[in-house]
Specification:
The complex is a heterodimer. By secondary structure, chain A is an all-beta fold. Chain A contains one helix and 15 strands. Chain A has a single domain, classed as Jelly Rolls (Sandwich), CATH 2.60.120.200. Chain A is globular and about 40 Å long.
Chain lengths: ~220, ~50
Amino acid sequence: MAKIFSENFESNDLGLYNVSSSDATITTSSDQAHSGTYSLKCDITSNDGSCELNFLGRDGLGEFYMRFWVYFDSDLTDDMGDGDSVYLFYTFDAGYTTSPLMITLLDSGGDDYIAVAYDDWNGSLWANLPATDTWHCIEVYYKQHDTDQGEVKFWLNGVLQDEAIGVDSGSAEIGHFWFGAPDTTSVTAAVYLDDIVIDSSKYIGTGYHVSQDGATGSPYHT
Amino acid sequence: MKIKLTEKQKEALRKKMKEFALRKLDEFKAKSDAQEARRNTLDQELKNG
């Protein structure tokens, strides 16, 4: 197992990250927390607002599991109309030529979904948006390949929703990661993220809380 | 679950991707020549629709 990144926001400090916002605020907050006291609060205060924290994926990351918990309030889905979206996760390759993997809440035809998009939206995996005002676990496995050996899998609350095997999953490895609400349309609402983990080789699942390493019963670590 | 987006919907989403990349390159001040070239390409693509 090789954990690449984990964050539970319990330090109550975003100073390690590149953080930016426009018509929105991004802070640690005790309003909601999946575990501990704090989570990342992305509060979109005007239509088309955005806020995110960014980190760089070393020399490029081509295969990994990524899991985070998300809480979105009902104001968000109330505001969304056909074609509106709220991105939770965005990536680009090092040269900003392609977006290998994205996760968004999306209204299509009046129905709300979570979409995991890969290879510049040439492929996508979907699930119905679950209930608002509670925490949900999103996990994705991503293996980059630019012809036919790529893989993308999408779990919601520990249940596999959809998968794409043997596909073109993107033309380049990931160099830049953004979490938060990096791109939105026509919503004013808050989204919270917590317990983010990226691992190069192992499924993480719903049971593990960041900082549980070595704890008896930690399902991810043992 | 399989949802089929139309090509028009996909293009709208790709346009948002390009806008996002352009914002980030502007924000990072396009520190390298390659980033500056990519910024200019994206800017032109978006202007051309």
